Amino acid sequence: MKLDDVMIELEDMGNEQTRSTWIRHGAQGSVYGVKIGDMKKLVKHVKKNQELALSLYETGNFDAMYLAGLTVDPKKIEKETLQKWVKKANWYMLAEYTVAGVASESKYALELAREWMNASDEMVATCGWSTYANYVTITPDDELDLEEIQKFLQQVQETIHTQQNRVRYMMNSFVMAVGICTKSLSEEARRVADHIGKVHVDVGNTSCKVPYAPEYIEKAIARGKLGQKKKTAIC
Question: What is d(CA 221, CA 6) in angstroms, rounded to the nearest whole number?
């Protein structure tokens, strides 16, 4: 498939109800309103074409940009491309899912996560926290910098309630990722989760809820998830 073919398919898949939902959640600019499940039907047609995947992100259309994240090869993507992507991620679905998922599986995961976490721009910073959280969920414990993760847990404990809106959300998610997926730091993450308590995030006119980290971690552990790693962060 060529770019024009994919864009036509996406537009045909879109519907007004889903479009309204994405906009209500924060989508900006061009939006067709394609459900993620429907979008994944196109993955097999795009996945082996890196140039096409990259071109989809450049369109500025949300549906195409999200599809790009599902189809690009994270092992081949360049750091400069990821830097361009994060600057164009104008709402949380792109920042926290698309860019963060791809970045976490790239060669530049830690380098970019550390840089982005310190950004003043809300979407860049939340992307950084999501990138590191995703990295934790897919990387064996013996390959993680546990001392650095401990420092980030301490940073969350001390600053989460004064951070920007979506950064608070992803800091909370970072604690949960460490608490569930990293055995040696699970107890520390649970202690931090108890300390920070309920995290308030403005989710706008949506029914989204902010997970209560202590309860979320405990339920996952009760299901036998402690220390389990994901095969991929891209979803």
Answer: 41
